[in-house]
Design brief:
The chain is α/β, with parallel strands linked by helices and 139 residues long. It contains three helices and seven strands. 25% of the residues lie in helices and 29% in strands. Strands 5-4-3-7-6 form a five-stranded mixed beta sheet. The longest helix is centred in the first third of the chain and has 16 residues. The protein starts with 5 loop residues before the first strand and ends in a 10-residue tail after the last strand.
C-alpha cells in the first residue's frame, strides 16, 4: 500500500498546469516522470487552505534534509519547478525522479526513488524551510 502524501491546492493546480503544458510536446526522457508526478498528485491528500499545511510536509520550494538510507549519506535539497532546477546547487526539479518521489512526504517518512544509479531509499530527516509555514504563500 502506498503511503499517503500531501499537497496544497495551489501546488496541485500549478503542477497539473505544468503537466498539461509538458504533455502537449513531451520530451521522451521526461514522459515517465510526468506520468509519475501526475499519479502522485492524483493520489495525494489535498490541503485546501495553505495556512493549514502541516509544518513537516514537503511542498514546492521546500528545503529538506534527506538521508539516503541505501548509501548512508545525507544531503539538502530544495524542491523546485523545472526552469529553476540546478542539481549542483541542490535545486531538484519536481520532474526529476527524486523530486517526484519526495513531494508530499513528511518528516520521518521513508520513500523509494528510482534514480539513474538505481532505486534508492530515503528518509526525510528535517524540513529546513517550507513556504507555507514561513508565511510565504505567494511562492
Amino acid at each position: 500500500m502506498k503511503k499517503q502524501i500531501w499537497v496544497t491546492e495551489a501546488d496541485k493546480q500549478r503542477l497539473l498546469k505544468l503537466i498539461e503544458d509538458l504533455s502537449e510536446v513531451p520530451d521522451k526522457r521526461d514522459l515517465p516522470h510526468i506520468q509519475d508526478l501526475k499519479a502522485e498528485i492524483e493520489n495525494a491528500k489535498v490541503i485546501q487552505d495553505s495556512k493549514k499545511v502541516p509544518a513537516d510536509v514537503i511542498t514546492m520550494r521546500s528545503k529538506v534534509r534527506l538521508r539516503n538510507l541505501t548509501r548512508g549519506t545525507e544531503a539538502e535539497y530544495t524542491l523546485v519547478y523545472p526552469p529553476e532546477a540546478n542539481a549542483e546547487e541542490g535545486l531538484i526539479s519536481v520532474l526529476a525522479p527524486l523530486g517526484t518521489s519526495m513531494i508530499g512526504f513528511r518528516v520521518g517518512s521513508e520513500f523509494d526513488a528510482n534514480l539513474p544509479a538505481g532505486t534508492m531509499r530515503f528518509r526525510v530527516e528535517e524540513l529546513l524551510y517550507q513556504p507555507e509555514s514561513a508565511g510565504d504563500f505567494h511562492l
